[in-house]
Amino acid sequence: MADTATKKSSTATTTKNRRRPAKNGAMLTNEQNAENGFRASEKLSDNLQRVLVDLIELASQGKQAHWNVVGKNFRDTHLQLDEIIEAARNFSDTVAERMRALHALPDGRSDTVAETTTLPEFPQGEIDTAEVVDLVTERLEATIGTCREVHDDVDEEDPTSADILHAILEALEQLAWMVSAENRTPVR
Predict the structure, then answer these.
(1) Rounded to whole angstroms, how far apart are CA atoms 132 and 76?
(2) How far is Cα 55 from Cα 78, in angstroms, rounded to an integer?
(3) What is the pTM of this model?
(4) What burial class does residue 72 get, using C-beta atoms within 10 Å of its C-beta: 0-12 exposed, 13-18 middle, 19+ buried?
């Protein structure tokens, strides 16, 4: 009996593995292997960079508005600004990390952002809630405009990056609608 048990266990350990043995370098296509494969063209990198700086600036200006908003509906506006800031920060991180995955170099330095953003400068000082609503809506729409402007070129080269832009557009367009509704009057 001991011999039978030994035979069974030795047979189990000598059964040939049917998987291919591991190799030092993965044999993947360029599109599958981000480390050695698909690299963003200069155009794709530039387009993603344009979106990145607008998102970073949107978050920064959102904070400026958040700290200095005053007036009617202060609390609601103050909290809504936090939602915009969080979305812009999360999306900027997603875009920057996508750029790195494609071997592009995101540049979020304050000088770069200030020099290249499409968003106008945000006013200094306390600002009434109604004016903040208009200013923030304008900045959301500028960021949306940048995403829409680069979308087709991004999609042509890298549909995955275009999917990221879709998510950004969906969220920012909803936020722009919700923020702008504060100052709207019903259409009759």
Answers:
(1) 12
(2) 19
(3) 0.81
(4) exposed
Q: Model confidence over 9-60: pLDDT tens digits?
A: 444 555 565 666 656 655 555 555 546 668 999 999 999 999 999 999 999 9
d(CA 162, CA 155) in angstroms, rounded, equals 5
The rounded distance, in Å, linking the Cα atoms of 152 and 68 is 37
Query: What span, in angstroms and rounded, lies between the C-alpha atoms of 28 and 179?
Result: 46
Q: What is the DSSP letter of 33?
A: -
How far lies 61's CA from each of 58, 66, 85, 122, 126, in Å? 5, 8, 9, 6, 13
The per-residue pLDDT for range 145-188, each reduced to its tens digit, is 999 999 999 999 999 999 999 999 999 999 999 999 999 998 88
In this prediction, residue 18 carries a pLDDT of: 67
For residue 166, the SS3 value is: helix
Residue 11 burial (10 A CB sphere; 0-12, 13-18, 19+): exposed
Q: For residues 141 and 52, what is the distance between their CA atoms, to the nearest angstrom?
A: 15
